[in-house]
Amino acid sequence: MELRVDRERCIGAGMCALTAPDVFDQDDEDGRVVPLTLVPTAEQEAAAREAVQQCPSGALTIAH
How crowded is the C-beta side of 12, counted as CA atoms within 13 Å? Predict the structure, then answer.
């Protein structure tokens, strides 16, 4: 699994950081998503997938 993050599309809702805190964080200055990894471990995959689904702006996607 590989994640793609579009910081320009991000609205700073923070659902990603709440859902997958080992994979995503938020920028202290603008609140936008900060990926901690673009290739989650097997243990992080379920939370990362949930975060992608929860993102209200569609800023997170899974590359195939």
Answer: 6
CA–CA gap between residue 26 and residue 53 (Å, rounded): 17
Q: How confident is the model at residue 54 (pLDDT cuts 50, 70, 90)?
A: very high
Phi and psi angles of residue 37, each rounded to the nearest 5 degrees, phi first = -155, 150
CA-CA-CA-CA dihedral for 25, 57, 7, 5, to nearest 10: 70
Return all residues near 2 (Cβ < 8 A) that are at least 6 apart: 38, 39, 62, 63
If one counts every other C-beta atom within 10 angstroms of the C-beta of residue 16, the result is: 27
pLDDT at 1: 95
Going by their DSSP bridges, the two strands 33-35 and 24-26 should be labelled as antiparallel
Tell me the pLDDT band of 61, cut-offs 50, 70 and 90: very high
